[in-house]
Structures are given as structure tokens and as C-alpha cells.
Amino acid sequence: MSLKPVAFLSHPACLRHRPPAGHPERPERLSAILSALESDPLHLRLLSTAPPVDPEPWLTSVHDPEYLQRLRQTQGKPLQPLDHGDTYAGGDSYLAAQAAVGCALAAIDLVCCGEARSVFCAVRPPGHHARVAAAMGFCLLNTVAIAARYAQASYKISRVAILDWDVHHGNGTQEIFYEDPTVYYASLHQYPHYPGTGASDETGRGPGLGFTLNVPLPPGSTEEDYLRATRERILPALTAFRPELLLVSAGFDAHRDDPLGAMLLVEQSFARLTHLCVELVETVQAKGIVSILEGGYNTQALARSVLAHLQALESSPG
Ligand SMILES: [Zn+2]
């Protein structure tokens, strides 16, 4: 039986969101990943195209129409803060956010149709802080949340797990699924830190109670701390949930060289976390992994960490 490939998806429009000079969430993040991958033989083994998916009909599965309208109205306008001072939209920002979601939905198709065993989406702007009705924390559309809804609606998947290892808590994603027992949100993050949410007693509400798991970690946490928390807290919970699909909010800003976090991970730490994800998917016999780029603001550390993540996805038997 031949092994299904791992895929790497990106879109040139993701380079066209250009926050003001000096902003950490800049197009160079993505160009660094693309050039690192280009010069690595790994790229020859990756599937890198997928039939495009129009994200437009799916945006309202997560976002408020009035917010989407406000976001669309920024198209072609001068760059301006949207909802929060650190989050900009204008020019082609909407096109970039739309392309990010389009890639994630195409990734869902590849995994759910059995054409790839896992997919990494190198996209920006990131998404996990984007709220139902507001931009936040450099995020305009909540890409991972829209991908979860798309998978559920298009492939009749009842249980989706989202593992978020970005150094920041994914407050937007948590909020979106807080009362929903069909999408399990699990997060490892620096705490206390931006955006302030993600305490361990935030566990969901109503029918969603017990389907949100926050594992806050103190600044200075190491690979060992991350792996222990994943093995002892995250994996048992997600194994019991038995997801049919695993989505990863893959931020790489817990790297020790990242300017926005105070954690001590190195490139190979992300490879080891990735191996644990593959192990989970095998244990519960889920369809596969769709991993979506979130943060990571030292462009070189980011590029190397993404390569380590991809190599781990590719080298795992899956
Ligand atoms: Zn982050």
C-alpha cells in the first residue's frame, strides 16, 4: 500500500497583507518559509497543489456578517487599525485573509478525500485571535475555526480537535467553540501573557463544558515542559474525545529566539510535538492532520521550525 503524501499549501496573495513598517506580522515571515523550503530537498516530496476552494460561502459559519462587511470595506483603502490598535487592514489585507482560509479549506479536502495524510498551510495573516465579530491580535479571519466548520459540513465529520501550540492563547477559537461539544479546543500557551485568556479553569460552557482544555505554562517553559504537558494532559483528553480530524494552530512563537514570547523551544521541539500529533491521529484513527500557521516572529527561527514540523509530518509513518 503506497503511503499518502504530505502536502504544503500556500498562496501568493498571503504576501499582500502589509502592516506598517516595524510590525512583527510581516510578509517576510512567509517569504522566509518559502525560501527555506525551496532550498531543502524535502519540497520535492511534498504535494503542493490542491483544487482551490472559494472561502466566501464559509466565512459566516464563524463570523458575524456585519463584521465581514466592515472587513470587506477595508479593501483598497489606506491601511488602518481594525478593532484593536495592533491589528491592521487595508489594501489587499482582505484578499490575504481570504486566501489563507481558501488554503485551509483546500487542505481539508486533501485530507478528507484521502489524497494527503497531512497538510501544512503556510498562510498569513494568522487567525486564532479573530473573534466572531472583531479583528484582534494581528488576526482578521479565524482560519482554523472556519476550516473546522467546513470539515464538519462538507464531510459529515462530527468530532474535530484543534490543538493550539502558539505561544499566545487562541481566545478567538476558544470563544467560537466554547459551548460546542463537537469541536474540542486544546491549548498550550504562555500564561500570563497576551491576550489574557486561557486560565486552566476555562473549560467550556453548557453543552461545551469539558470540551475546552487550557494548559497554561509559565514563561521560561522548556521542551520538556511542553512534551510532558502534551503527553500527560492533552493526549489523554484528545484520545478520549476520539476526533475524526486533527487541526493544529501551529504558531512557532514559543521558539526561544522569538521576540513576542518568553518560552525556550527550539526547532526540534516542534518536530517532537508533531510526532505526538501523528501518534494521536494513529491511535484514534482520524483522517489526518491539517496544520495552519499562526504566529512566529523571528523569521529565521520560524522558517527552520516550519521545516522541522514538515519533516516530522513527512517522516512519521501516518
Ligand atoms: Zn502567537
From TrEMBL:
It comes from the Bacteria. Pfam families: Hist_deacetyl (PF00850). One of its GO terms (molecular function) is histone deacetylase activity. Residues 23-313 form the Histone deacetylase domain. InterPro entries: HDACs, His_deacetylse_dom, His_deacetylse_dom_sf, Ureohydrolase_dom_sf. GO terms for biological process: epigenetic regulation of gene expression. Belongs to the histone deacetylase family. PANTHER family: HISTONE DEACETYLASE HDAC1, HISTONE DEACETYLASE HDAC1-RELATED. This is Deacetylase family enzyme. It comes from Candidatus Methylacidithermus pantelleriae.
